[in-house]
Structures are given as C-alpha cells and as structure tokens.
Amino acid sequence: MTSTAMRVLVTIGSVASIAFGAWHFFVPRAWDWFSYTAPEATELVIAVRAINVFFSLSLVLFGLMNIALAFGKEASSYSTLVVLGATVVLWTTRVVLQIIYPQGSAIAALQYGMLAAFVVVLACHLLPLLAEARAFLLSH
Questions:
Q1: pLDDT tens sequence across 14-59
Q2: What pLDDT, in 10s, does the model give residues 82-137?
Q3: Got the DSSP string for the chain?
Q4: Contact (CB, 8 A) for 133 and 81
Q5: How far is Cα 62 from Cα 9, in angstroms, rounded to an integer?
Q6: End-to-end Cα separation, the chain, in angstroms
Q7: Burial status of residue 83 (CB atoms within 10 A of its CB: 0-12, 13-18, 19 or more)
Q8: Cβ distance 73 to 62 under 8 Å?
Q9: What is the pLDDT of residue 39?
Q10: Whole-number Cα distances in Å, 62 to 12, 26, 118, 131
Q11: What sign does the dihedral 22-117-14-66 (CA atoms) show?
Q12: What residue ranges do the domains of the chain occupy?
C-alpha cells in the first residue's frame, strides 16, 4: 500500500474497528445482557460471553493487523489483500445485517447512525482493498 490517502482510510477504519471491539468487551455488563436470560441457562450465558469475547478480540486484532500491514515496510501486497479482504467481508456482513435486521430500531437516529458508521468503516477498508487489488493486478 503506497498511497497516503489509502493509509489514512485504513487507519480510520481500523481505529473504528478497534474501538468497536474494545467497546464490545464491556457491552454485556453495561447493558446487563444476562438479566434477560433465565438463571438456569448457564450454558447459554457461557456461550454468549465466549462469542462476545471472540468477536471483540477479532475486531481489535483485525484493526491492528490492517494498521501493521498499511505501515509495515515488509508487508506484501498479497498479505495486505488477504487481510483487507477478510475485513471487508466482515464489515459487509455487518452492513447487510443492519439493513435486514436493524439494531436500534426503537430510535431511528440510532438505527441509521449505526448503519452510517458501519458503511463508513466498510468504505475505509473497501477503497484501499480495491486500490491494492488494482496495483497488484497491474504488477503481475
């Protein structure tokens, strides 16, 4: 990745991914998720907690990997394409889910604000992915 603009986009998208991931570590407690679960459903509580930790950590790690690849002197185009591609798939899935099964639907501003945030994060990864893919294909 050579363009400063592309690095800036990856950094913005990655910092947002890291922030969403870090925030999600605290969501279960902040929103008292498990008060909605029957006390005898211990396996469900354990599974939801594990999935949330895995999800949160994944967002943080993908954000860090994208930044490392965007600024790393030894990063190859191929590895950058792979990680950006995976990140784009994740954020595309989140955008589609927000459209089909919107969160925050009780408050329109929240629902559409979340959608807008997810689209911006997706764009911050998709544009550099397309630029990197183009450069890769032209060099081969």
A1: 999 999 999 999 999 999 999 999 989 999 999 999 999 999 999 9
A2: 999 999 999 999 999 999 999 999 999 999 999 999 999 999 999 999 999 999 99
A3: ---HHHHHHHHHHHHHHHHHHHHHHHHHHHTTGGGGS-TT-HHHHHHHHHHHHHHHHHHHHHHHHHHHHHH-TT--HHHHHHHHHHHHHHHHHHHHHHHHS-SSTTSHHHHHHHHHHHHHHHHHHHHHHHHHHHHHHHH-
A4: yes
A5: 15
A6: 15
A7: buried
A8: no
A9: 87
A10: 13, 19, 15, 19
A11: positive
A12: 4-139
Which residues make Cβ contacts (< 8 Å) with residue 13, sequence separation at least 6? 63, 66, 87, 91, 120, 121, 122, 123, 124, 125
Q: Is the pTM of this model over 0.70?
A: yes
Q: Any idea which residue has 């679960």 for tokens?
A: 37
pLDDT at 2 over 70: no
Q: Which two tokens stand for residue 13?
A: 């998208």
Token pair in block for residue 6: 């592309």
Compute the C-alpha angle 123/23/38, nearest 5°.
120
